[in-house]
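Structure ticket #2291
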Amino acid sequence: MKIPKYRKDKLKNNYDVIIIGSGISGLCSAALLSMEGKKVLLLEKHFKVGGYTHTFRRQNYEWDVGIHYIGGMHNKRSFSRKLFDKITDNNLKWNKTDDNYDRIIFPDKSYNFVAPKSKFIENLKNYFPLESSNIDQYMQTITSINKSMFKYFAAKGLSGFKEILFSNYLSKDFLKFSDKTTYEALLEITSNQRLIGVLTGQWGDYGLPPKQSSFAMHCAIASHYLDGANYPIGGSGQIAQTIVPTIEKNGGQIFISTGVKSIYIQKGKCKGVVLENGDIIESKSVISSAGVQNTLNKFLSNESSLDKYRANLNKVEPSSGHGCLYVGFNKTANQLKITNTNLWIYPSDNHDLNVQKYMKDENEQFPLVYLSFASSKDPKWEENYPGTATLEAIVPTSFNHYKKWTSKPWKKRGDEYLQYKENFSQRIIDIIYKHCPNLKDQISYYELSSPLSTRDMAHYEFGELYGTNHTPSRFRQKWLKPKTPIKNLYLTGQDITTVGLPSALMSGMLTSSALLNKNLFKEI
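Resolution: structure written out below.
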């Protein structure tokens, strides 16, 4: 799949929609709108499309940047699967991973999360036999949120009189979940701190420990995997690889390595974009998939009429950064006895205390090390990368730990930075060897990305992984929706819905529905 860089002479006339950013929400919007007959132009600043769904290669290895497992895709009736099938023309294929999709590891004991739901419940009750009724209550609670979540997101697509009339009604059930922190809500169900520590063992999937995160976000993630996890066959790069042809087949255009400087506004209406080279490309509408921080503080920084709207950013906060160690082996997953179960490794079951201590002092134990083994999840791995295996090791970290190097460019941050990264890498490798002794001294290649890498590659100003933090107050922000105060300017992405590929995918449909003034959800 060869996607061209921008050239003025390649432009078509009369674009209906320009989309900034080719993450999954931008790709989904471009595919759906082009299928609806709109003339679409998708602009990506990076040299690869896909946002957090893209992959990169070094030597004989390939790694995922952001996709490690997705729930429910083996179920062809699920909403996300139907939407993926639509925008990829059924060309994106999924592999169901082992039933034991996650393992939560504390110093004294490990806990397996196993699909399907009945097995998950059975295992939990075996681990905590005195908590049986509380576990039943927990399961009923987390699985009851889905219907209210769809209503809540549907309310975001409303505007004008319909929003005034229906928004509060559609949102009220969801807000009962979202207004509580995860810890507050779980404490109403059980007082067993170890059980709470186990149930929140996937907090890294939404970026905040229990006393900070919204319970609605916890419910969404926990219930998402109950029927099992999946991985794209051929790697997560196949997501963009299978959506791009749909966009192009329907007359859409895509340019890579094409940065947007600002959104072009005239007389209070959005008229297109201004590129970093100064070129203006006009369109009837613009969708920004670049995050609300980038959109308001960068692309619209000179629009004084938006000062009041922009002040909403003070009501939310960016999520934390992360370090990811990309590891390669010159042996196969079978030879190394690697399974495809994700490992969540913690220093204790008090997640909030672990985070607090580490964010204050980076010499404290990592609050979490998450290990994902893509090469054992992809049945085509051996065909594409024979004789090799990989893993990704992710550690949450603070952008503040990297402040002294923020002004230095990529690959030119000096020896002190390289030594810092090497020390960080070795700390992670020690944990890998401790919990995966089968991998000891087998590493052939490793490379660490930092929050500065996220800032420079994904263009998030604070190196944040999950956009806006998923706190209880975040879900009270009615302004986080597709429509903006500027006519013909729309937002999409995880800031509009929530973190996670299916949610960001859904935001593409939500924004497309708002732009078209048509309920695309009914068609799915």
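Closing remark: The two ends are 28 Å apart (CA to CA).
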